[in-house]
């Protein structure tokens, strides 16, 4: 899979949609010990992508090679969690320790250690002098079951000789051209292309559903303390405010729920004690 994107919030293409089928999605959580905090990214088969960092304004000096110190910002100790929602009863979840904080290296390590799939991953972000992101993209090549060892070794060798992704993007190379450089004479078959675009699925209905998980008692306490409920989506920054009347209506619906649902809400409320108010959808 190879993809490249340029602002504003629109992408060129992503061949094969990273192995996802219609209605499926994948969520990455990079939980390192660096100053940027957790990094979250989500994408689905339709090419919709979104993500955020807990502390997006964290900064460190560039490396000696004049590159962004991604590993220093993310941290070199922590875990990478991958959740695939394949439309089944339970999503698939895998995890692996971070190896460097450099996202590409951590992903390649995850694929080998957690999913036992030899993989080559290269990522890049092109940043302008004013620190605006000009382009971003990446290559992920994975061995299929039964792949010959010499093919895997050749892919690994080619990956080590690849120009930086940012260099290829700044030269105006398309996703297809980057794929050709990555695979050389291995005769790749180009599948359907999926346009990429930033898309956030937050909504007022999702906010109400998330607040319902707090339970009636917790919502009542929130109402007495603040007089309303306010939730901000970290993915897109949209802010949702529920007035006192709307919160009281939500409490009334919870109190009118069947006993089994009320017991579940009470259980969720007990688990949420001492946790910060929700701010992500």
UniProtKB/TrEMBL annotation:
Q: Which GO terms describe its biological process?
A: protein refolding
- Start-end of Basic residues biased regions: 272-281
Q: Does the keyword Ubl conjugation apply?
A: no
What name appears for this protein in its UniProt entry?
Hsp33 family molecular chaperone HslO
Q: Where is the composition biased (Basic and acidic residues)?
A: 260-271
Keyword ATP-binding appears in the UniProt entry? no
Question: What residue spans carry the region label Disordered?
Answer: 258-281
Checking InterPro entries in the record gives: Heat_shock_Hsp33, Heat_shock_Hsp33_C, Heat_shock_Hsp33_N
Q: Which UniProt keywords are present, listed alphabetically?
A: Chaperone, Cytoplasm, Disulfide bond, Redox-active center, Zinc
The terms under GO molecular function for this entry are: protein folding chaperone; unfolded protein binding
Listed GO CC annotations: cytoplasm
Lineage of origin: Bacteria, Bacillati, Candidatus Sysuimicrobiota, Candidatus Sysuimicrobiia, Candidatus Sysuimicrobiales
């Amino acid at each position: 899979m190879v993809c490249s994107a340029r602002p504003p919030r629109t992408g060129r293409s992503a061949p094969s949609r990273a192995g996802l089928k219609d209605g499926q999605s994948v969520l990455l959580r990079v939980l390192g010990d660096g100053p940027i905090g957790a990094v979250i990214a989500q994408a689905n088969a339709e090419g919709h992508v979104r993500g955020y960092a807990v502390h997006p304004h964290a900064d460190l000096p560039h490396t000696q090679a004049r590159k962004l110190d991604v590993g220093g910002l993310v941290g070199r100790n922590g875990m990478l969690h991958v959740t695939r929602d394949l439309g089944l009863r339970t999503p698939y979840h895998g995890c692996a320790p971070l190896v460097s904080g450099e996202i590409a290296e951590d992903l390649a390590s995850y694929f080998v250690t957690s999913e036992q799939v030899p993989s080559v991953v290269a990522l890049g972000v092109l940043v302008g002098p004013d620190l605006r992101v000009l382009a971003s993209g990446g290559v992920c090549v994975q061995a299929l079951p039964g792949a010959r060892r010499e093919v895997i070794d050749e892919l690994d060798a080619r990956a080590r000789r690849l120009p930086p992704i940012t260099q290829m993007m700044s030269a105006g190379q398309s996703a297809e051209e980057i794929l050709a450089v990555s695979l050389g004479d291995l005769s790749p078959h180009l599948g359907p292309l999926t346009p990429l675009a930033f898309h956030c699925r937050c909504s007022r209905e999702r906010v109400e559903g998330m607040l319902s998980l707090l339970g009636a008692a917790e919502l009542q306490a929130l109402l007495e303390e603040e007089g309303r409920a306010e939730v901000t989506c970290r993915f897109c920054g949209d802010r949702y405010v529920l007035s006192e009347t709307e919160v009281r209506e939500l409490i009334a619906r919870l109190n009118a729920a069947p006993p089994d649902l009320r017991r579940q809400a009470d259980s969720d409320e007990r688990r949420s004690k001492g946790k910060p108010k929700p701010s992500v959808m």
